C-alpha cells in the first residue's frame, strides 16, 4: 500500500494504534472496484498486444516479457491489497501480520512502476539499436542510464522499506532487517526523490519517440500519428505528478473519519500508474490491427459501391479498361505498369504467360502454410490489355491498392541470400500489406527452379540471414524476381523494386530505403543508405 508507507513510512499508526477509539470510513468496496477494473483493462490490452504479435508471427521480445511480468506483479499486488482490506485494514488497529502485508504490497507497487517503465525503455532501445556508425548513439546511452538508474532506485527503495528506523521504536519489529538502522529523515527524502525521479522518467520516455521517429522516411501525418501513440505515457506522467502532489498535502496526514478513504484513493492512483503504463505501451502495437480493420471496411465499401458494367464484351472496373475479345500472344513474360487515372495511382499490371490453375485440394496440399497467399478465385483466365500501343496477352495482374506505391515502407537487405538470389549487392523492395496487393492468378507450387514451365516459380529459401524460411517468386521465362514472403511475416509482401523501375507515371528515383538490414555485410565501397540501419535482421 504505497501511499501510506511512502508518505509516512508505514503510516503514523504504530503496531497498536493510538487511534483505536476513532472510527474510520471503510472504503473496501471502492478499492476492490478500482483496483480490479484497472487490472482487467490492463489484461485486455496486454492480451491484444500478445495476440497481435503472435498472430502475425512476429514473436515476443524482451519488452513483452517484462510487461507480462509487470502484469503478474500488478495482479499479485492487487490480491494482497484486497486481503488487507478484507482482514481489517480500515480499522486502523494493525497487527504485525498486517504490517508485513503492507510492506509487501508497497514493494510490489515500486517494482511494478519500475518494470513497466523499463519495458518501454527496452522498446525504445530496440528502435534505436544500430551500429557504432549510428547517427544518434546518444539515444542508447540515455536509455541505458535511465534503465540502470530506475532499477537502482527500485532496489534501494525496496530494501529501505524493510529497514529499521533509528530512534523510532515503532519500526524495530523482528521482521525488519537486523543489524543496522536507517535515518528517518533520510528515508523520507530518498523516497520523495524516487517519486520525483519516476515522474521525470515518464516525461523523458514520452518525449523520446519523437527523436527516434521524426527522422524516418514517412509521411508527416504518419509520423505524428506514430509519435502520438508512442507518447501516450505523457498522460501517466501527468497522473503521477498530480498523485505525488496530492499525497504530500497536509490533508493526507490528517487523522479524521476520511483518513483511510484518502489512503485508499491514493492506492488506486498507484495501481492506475502501473496499469496505465501497461495500457499505453500496448496501444501502438494495436495500430496495425486497427489499420487492418479500417482497410477491410474500406475495401468492402469499395467492392459494393464500385461501378461495374459490361458493354459489348468490354468490362469497365474503376479506371482499368479490359477488352476480352482480342488477344495476341507474347513471346516472353514482361513486367510493366499502366499509368492510371489520378484517383488510382497505385495500380500496376504484370504481364506473362498463361497457365492452368491448379485444383484447390492440390494447392492446399502442396502449398501448406502459404496455400491462400496469392489465391484469387475470381481471376480471369485470359484477358487482353492495351499497353504502349501494343496488345499483350496477360493472365497475371499485380494490383497495389489503398495508396500510391511510393507511400509504402521500403527496405534494402545485404544478407548473403539476397545477394545470391538478386545477382547483385543486395535486394531492394517495397513492403506492402497482404490486403493491399492482389495477384491474379496464384503462383505455382513451391519447388526448385526446375522443371521449367508455368507463369511463375516459387522457390522456398531456407538459407536466409534471419534463419526464417521465405518464399521467393520469380518469372519462369526470364527469371526476374517478383515477390518475397517471409514465414515470420506472412501478412507482408516484399515487392521487388525492379518490377516498377521503368513504370510510366511513377517516379521511383527518390525512393530511398527506409530500413537497411544486415549492414554488417554491406560491400565496403557502398555508403550507408537506409534511414534506419541494422547490423543484422
UniProtKB/TrEMBL annotation:
Q: Which GO terms describe its molecular function?
A: carbon-sulfur lyase activity; metal ion binding
Subcellular location per UniProt equals:
Membrane
Gene3D superfamilies documented for this protein:
glutathione-dependent formaldehyde- activating enzyme (gfa)
Q: Where is the Rhodopsin domain?
A: 48-291
GO cellular component term of the entry, any: membrane
Q: What main location does UniProt list?
A: membrane
The family classification in the record reads: Belongs to the Gfa family. Belongs to the SAT4 family.
Q: Please identify the protein, giving its name as recorded.
A: Uncharacterized protein
Amino acid at each position: 500500500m504505497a501511499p501510506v508507507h511512502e508518505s509516512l513510512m508505514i503510516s503514523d499508526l504504530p503496531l497498536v494504534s493510538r487511534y483505536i477509539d476513532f472510527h474510520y470510513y471503510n472504503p473496501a468496496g471502492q478499492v476492490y472496484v478500482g483496483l480490479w477494473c484497472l487490472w482487467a483493462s490492463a489484461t485486455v490490452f496486454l492480451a491484444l498486444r500478445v495476440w497481435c504479435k503472435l498472430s502475425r508471427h512476429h514473436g515476443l521480445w524482451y519488452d513483452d516479457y517484462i510487461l507480462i511480468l509487470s502484469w503478474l506483479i500488478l495482479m499479485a499486488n492487487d490480491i494482497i491489497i484486497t486481503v488487507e482490506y478484507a482482514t481489517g485494514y480500515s480499522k486502523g488497529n494493525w497487527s504485525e501480520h498486517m504490517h508485513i502485508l503492507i510492506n509487501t504490497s508497497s514493494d510490489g507497487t515500486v517494482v511494478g512502476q519500475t518494470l513497466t517503465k523499463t519495458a518501454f525503455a527496452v522498446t525504445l532501445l530496440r528502435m534505436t539499436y544500430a551500429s557504432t556508425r549510428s547517427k544518434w548513439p546518444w539515444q542508447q546511452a540515455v536509455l541505458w542510464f535511465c534503465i540502470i538508474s530506475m532499477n537502482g532506485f527500485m532496489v534501494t527503495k525496496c530494501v529501505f522499506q524493510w529497514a529499521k528506523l533509528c530512534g523510532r521504536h515503532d519500526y524495530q519489529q523482528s521482521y525488519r532487517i537486523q543489524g543496522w538502522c536507517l535515518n528517518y529523515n533520510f528515508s523520507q527524502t530518498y523516497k520523495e526523490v524516487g517519486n520525483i525521479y519516476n515522474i521525470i522518467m515518464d516525461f523523458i520516455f514520452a518525449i523520446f519517440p519523437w527523436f527516434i521517429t521524426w527522422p524516418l522516411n514517412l509521411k508527416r501525418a504518419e509520423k505524428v500519428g506514430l509519435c502520438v501513440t508512442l507518447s501516450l505515457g505523457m498522460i501517466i506522467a501527468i497522473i503521477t505528478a498530480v498523485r505525488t502532489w496530492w499525497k504530500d498535502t497536509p490533508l493526507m496526514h490528517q487523522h479524521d473519519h476520511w483518513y483511510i478513504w484518502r489512503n485508499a484513493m491514493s492506492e488506486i492512483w498507484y495501481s492506475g500508474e502501473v496499469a496505465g503504463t501497461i495500457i499505453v505501451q500496448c496501444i501502438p502495437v494495436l495500430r496495425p490491427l486497427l489499420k487492418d480493420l479500417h482497410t477491410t471496411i474500406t475495401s468492402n465499401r469499395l467492392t459494393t459501391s464500385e461501378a461495374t458494367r459490361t458493354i459489348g464484351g468490354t468490362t469497365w472496373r474503376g479506371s482499368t479498361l479490359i477488352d476480352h475479345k482480342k488477344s495476341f500472344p507474347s513471346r516472353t513474360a514482361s513486367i510493366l505498369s499502366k499509368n492510371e487515372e489520378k484517383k488510382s495511382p497505385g495500380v500496376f499490371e504484370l504481364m506473362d504467360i498463361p497457365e492452368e490453375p491448379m485444383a484447390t485440394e492440390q494447392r492446399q496440399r502442396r502449398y501448406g502454410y502459404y496455400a491462400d497467399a496469392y489465391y484469387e478465385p475470381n481471376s480471369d483466365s485470359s484477358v487482353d490489355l492495351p499497353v504502349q500501343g501494343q496488345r499483350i496477352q496477360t493472365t497475371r495482374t499485380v494490383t497495389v491498392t489503398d495508396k500510391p506505391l511510393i507511400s509504402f515502407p521500403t527496405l534494402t537487405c545485404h544478407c548473403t541470400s539476397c545477394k545470391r538470389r538478386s545477382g547483385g549487392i543486395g535486394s531492394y523492395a517495397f513492403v506492402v500489406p497482404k490486403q493491399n496487393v492482389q495477384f491474379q492468378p496464384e503462383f505455382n507450387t513451391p519447388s526448385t527452379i526446375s522443371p521449367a514451365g508455368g507463369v511463375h516459380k516459387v522457390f522456398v529459401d531456407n538459407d536466409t540471414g534471419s534463419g526464417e524460411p521465405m518464399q521467393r517468386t520469380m518469372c519462369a521465362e526470364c527469371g526476374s524476381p517478383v515477390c518475397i514472403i517471409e514465414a515470420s511475416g506472412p501478412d507482408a509482401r516484399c515487392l521487388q523494386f525492379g518490377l516498377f523501375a521503368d513504370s510510366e507515371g511513377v517516379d521511383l528515383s527518390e525512393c530511398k530505403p527506409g530500413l537497411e538490414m544486415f549492414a554488417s555485410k554491406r560491400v565496403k565501397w557502398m555508403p550507408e543508405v537506409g534511414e534506419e540501419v541494422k547490423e543484422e535482421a
